[in-house]
Amino acid sequence: MLRILKLFFFDFMKEPFQISDDIRKAHTLPGAFYRESAWFDRAKERLWAASWHYAADAAEVDAPGKVVPFVLLPGVLDEPLLLARDRHGTVRCLSNVCTHRAKVIVEAAGSYRQLTCSYHGRCFDLDGRFRRMPGFQEVEDFPGERDHLAQISMEEWLGLCLVSLQPTVGLEEMVRPMRERLSWLPLNTLTYDPENSRDYFVQAHWALYCDNYLEGFHIPFVHPVLNQALDFSRYAYELFPYCNLQLGIADEGQPCFDPPAGHPDAGKRVFAYYFWLFPNLMFNFYPWGLSLNVVEPLAPDRTLVRFRTYRFADAGLQPAEAQLHQTELEDEAVVESVQKGIRSRHYDRGRFSVSMEPCVHHFHRLLAQFLC
Ligand code: FES
Ligand SMILES: [Fe+2]
């Protein structure tokens, strides 16, 4: 009986995630993936613990002693972490959980000389090393390796601190196509623009939001204003191992990039580079700067999308905030409608447009790879 149950469970969890490598033959993810909390839970360790997350801007820990606590994916991973810059200037991501009896150590961002737990006084250096603790004189083999704060993988990219609990792929490998393609841009001048940044709450599964982002197919149907800015006939898709690119080409009279001679995009009127990093980070580069979209699951039918705006120095252009906001509302409306439809008894799986949904297919194949 147990064996039958196990087989049934195995089949239930695994079978639907076979996504053919051949997009012409492939079916989309099954509706159950978006509906069932079992899949949402399965993604916690297999996907979210293994992927890279935006934690903070490096500018938030700009001076020695600066410490910023945060919770990684609240409600999903729920992992208390902190960023700390030590007195030598090195930034690290550390566990924010005391190695004695698990109290959260740092409750508020600020400048610290050391990290002291307010429960029984255990004290750590800013690099996470155990320093001292009262009342532990008789304890044997103490302190040991497990008494230091756990070190979490952290990389800086574009002035952003990106962290991962158990990365299966290095960040550099993931972002290399983006780094190379954009090497001619003044990326090191990007500066956070809080006035043009905001959070959106979407009543839909996080992957439905990503599915929608990963195709420009819907632009003529859903985004009339954006559609006028783009030359839709030249919209293009490119796939890389763990990221992909949608290249939006500007219509006449629209602001656009001017890539230098010899660049793969030289001569193209590039309106935007829409880079997606598996599974939930969107780097949208415009002539004025970067719109970073961080897609965070809250529940199987609720998602937080953080729009963070960064401007190039001397770009001479304002962020197109009103247009981004309008486009976002249009996307939310359609994604929330899909959330209602995905519950239907009459929907299971769809098919892909070969020419216009290669990035959605790419996403579904990567999900199958990580979750099955
Ligand atoms: S839990 Fe931190 S010192 Fe006891
Ligand atoms: Fe859209």
In short:
This protein is α+β, with helices and mostly antiparallel strands. It has helices spanning 2-14, 31-35, 37-48, 171-181, 206-213, 219-222, 224-229, 321-341, 358-371; strands at 53-57, 66-72, 79-85, 91-95, 110-111, 115-116, 123-124, 130-132, 151-157, 160-164, 191-192, 198-202, 236-239, 243-249, 270-277, 281-286, 289-299, 302-311.
Q: Features of this protein?
A:
binds FE2/S2 (inorganic) cluster; 26% strand; 8-stranded antiparallel β-sheet; 2 domains; disordered N terminus; single chain; 372 residues; binds fe (ii) ion; 25% helix; alpha+beta; Naphthalene 1,2-dioxygenase Alpha Subunit, Chain A, domain 1; Rieske Iron-sulfur Protein
What features would you describe in this structure?
The protein has 372 residues and is α+β, with helices and mostly antiparallel strands. The strands form 3 sheets. Strands 11, 12, 13, 14, 15, 16, 17 and 18 form an 8-stranded antiparallel beta sheet that branches. Helices cover 25% and strands 26% of the residues. It folds into 2 domains: 53-164, Rieske [2Fe-2S] iron-sulphur domain (Rieske Iron-sulfur Protein); 175-371, Naphthalene 1,2-dioxygenase Alpha Subunit, Chain A, domain 1 (Alpha-Beta Complex), CATH 3.90.380.10. Helix 5 (206-213) packs across helix 8. The model is unreliable at 1-8 (pLDDT under 50). The longest helix has 21 residues, at 321-341. The structure holds FE2/S2 (inorganic) cluster (FES) and fe (ii) ion (FE2). Fe (ii) ion binds at residues 212, 218, 222-223, 327, 331.
